[in-house]
Design brief:
By secondary structure, the chain is α/β, with parallel strands linked by helices. It has a domain at about 1-110: PH-domain like (Roll), CATH 2.30.29. Helices cover about 55% and strands about 20% of the residues. It has helices at about 75-95, 110-205; strands spanning about 1-5, 10, 20-25, 35-40, 45-50, 60-65, 70-75, 100. It has a 5-stranded mixed beta sheet. A hairpin with an 8-residue loop joins β3 (about 20-25) and β4 (about 35-40). It is rod-shaped, with a radius of gyration of 42 Å. The model is unreliable at about 1-5 (pLDDT under 50).
């Protein structure tokens, strides 16, 4: 599993005594919200394994009372930030025995001042991420709206074109009917004239 700082969160309540939990969340494609998958209290954490203290690597493991999670962070820097915050939180809020941090670089388990600076940078990073998610959602909404308007305009153009073609066809048919009626009238007049002429000839022949 690939980890970003928003996928695994350490939460501290404001009420006394403080309640600290580690929550695993997941963001699904196309959604700006996060779904909670698993949650443990800080006292259930037994071991944090950095996997290799001699190099910067993204892998680390979290062992709880009844669970074991293997993680691959998005980068070695994200892993270091998370372990620093987690170590600081455990030292401050664990009410029982502190969890064991093994195979972690010593620089990650430093003093509180360094960790507080990291926590501040982490909060800034998370706030920026949230703003980007909101901005991307708004951009996507505007894009979908524009696409919808484009589809409506295309549909309207298609309907207009179809109406114009139908109107043109009706006009052409009306013109053909008018011409046919004119020809029928001409033929009727010719027939009447022929009948009158024939009648005159017949009367002359009788005389």
């Amino acid at each position: 599993m690939c980890l970003s700082l928003s996928d695994c969160q350490t939460n501290v309540t404001n009420k006394k005594p403080s309640h600290v939990s580690i929550t695993k969340v997941k963001q699904f494609p196309g959604s700006s919200s996060f779904a909670k998958r698993s949650m443990w209290t800080i006292d259930q954490l037994r071991q944090v394994n950095g996997c290799d203290p001699n190099k910067d690597c993204p892998e680390f493991d979290l062992a709880f009372d009844n669970a074991f999670d293997q993680w691959v962070a998005g980068s070695a820097g994200e892993k270091c930030t998370f372990i620093q915050i987690l170590h600081h939180t455990c030292q401050r809020y664990s009410s029982q025995s502190k969890p064991e941090f093994v195979n972690c670089q010593s620089k990650l388990l430093g003093d509180d001042e360094t960790v507080d600076s990291v926590v501040f940078r982490c909060k800034v990073f998370l706030n920026r991420m949230r703003k980007e998610v909101v901005l991307n959602s708004r951009r996507q909404g505007r894009r979908l709206l524009l696409e919808g308007n484009s589809i409506l305009h295309s549909a309207a153009d298609s309907v207009t074109s179809a109406v114009q073609k139908a109107s043109q066809a009706l006009n052409e048919r009306g013109e053909r009917l008018s011409r046919a009626e004119e020809k029928t009238g001409e033929m009727k007049n010719s027939a009447e004239q022929f009948s009158v002429t024939a009648h005159k000839l017949a009367m002359k022949h009788k005389c």
